[in-house]
């Protein structure tokens, strides 16, 4: 009797874990991601650094905790920088959440990708960035492939 009860308990726990991760995996696949507003744009030590809002619509009834962002930044198909997540952030169920990622790109790579010198880069008003990569939660990832034009005229 006791052995049968332990078996049912273990099977129930395994089934619950399976449903838990299956629901999160499906919720992550259904995320709709777009870019929000850039914040705290600054130029320091040869790097262009800012915090980028990712606006995430989660139509599922399951909340997610984003704990990883592996997003590369491109200009004219040339790699110029990386996005990272400083701390885990919650993606609310049945609604829109904003996840902040930190972006660092080198000014030299940026100028090279645009075909300008660094001094010519300072005269530009906007730069179009492409975000390619994924955002992760619970060991699963959702792909990101979006573009944004960043107004850089006020920083230089």
Topology of this structure?
Blueprint (H helix, E strand, L loop, with lengths): L1 H28 L2 E13 L2 E12 L5 E3 L1 E8 L2 E7 L4 E3 L3 E12 H8 L3 H4 L4 E12 L2 E12 L5
Antiparallel strand pairs: 1-2, 2-7, 3-6, 4-5, 4-8, 5-7, 8-9
Mean residue pLDDT: 83
CATH class: Mainly Beta
Oligomer: single chain
Identify the strand order in the major beta sheet. Answer: 1-2-7-5-4-8-9
Provide the CATH superfamily: Immunoglobulins
The residue ranges in which pLDDT falls below 50 over 5 or more consecutive positions are none
Please provide the count of β strands.
9
Order of helices and strands: HEEEEEEEHHEE
How many individual helices? Answer: 3
Structural class: alpha+beta
CATH architecture: Sandwich
Shape: elongated
Number of domains: 1
Topology-level CATH name: Immunoglobulin-like
Main beta sheet strand tally, sense and closure: 7 strands, antiparallel
Report Rg.
Answer: 20 Å
Terminus-to-terminus distance: 75 Å
% residues in beta strands: over 45%
Helix content: 25-40%
Organism: Arcicella lustrica
Transmembrane segments: 6-22
Protein name: Late embryogenesis abundant protein LEA-2 subgroup domain-containing protein
Keywords: Membrane, Transmembrane, Transmembrane helix
Would you write up a description of this structure?
Keywords: Membrane, Transmembrane, Transmembrane helix. The chain crosses the membrane at residues 6-22. This is Late embryogenesis abundant protein LEA-2 subgroup domain-containing protein. The protein is of the alpha+beta class. The protein has helices spanning 2-29, 107-114, 118-121, and strands at residues 32-44, 47-58, 64-66, 68-75, 78-84, 89-91, 95-106, 126-137, 140-151. It has 3 helices and 9 strands. A hairpin with a 2-residue loop joins strand 8 (126-137) and strand 9.
């Amino acid at each position: 009797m006791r052995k049968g009860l332990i078996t049912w308990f273990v099977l129930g726990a395994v089934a619950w874990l399976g449903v838990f991760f299956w629901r999160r995996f499906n919720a992550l696949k259904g995320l709709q991601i777009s870019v929000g507003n850039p914040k705290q744009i600054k130029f320091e030590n040869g790097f262009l650094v800012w915090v980028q809002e990712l606006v995430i619509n989660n139509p599922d009834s399951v909340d997610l905790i984003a704990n990883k962002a592996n997003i590369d930044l491109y200009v004219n198909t040339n790699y110029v920088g990386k996005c990272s997540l400083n701390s885990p952030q919650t993606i609310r169920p049945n609604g829109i959440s904003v996840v902040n990622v930190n972006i660092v790109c080198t000014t030299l790579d940026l100028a090279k990708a645009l075909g300008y010198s660094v001094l010519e880069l300072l005269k530009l008003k906007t730069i179009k960035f492409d975000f390619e990569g994924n955002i992760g939660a619970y060991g699963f990832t959702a792909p990101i492939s979006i573009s944004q034009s960043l107004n850089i005229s006020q920083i230089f």
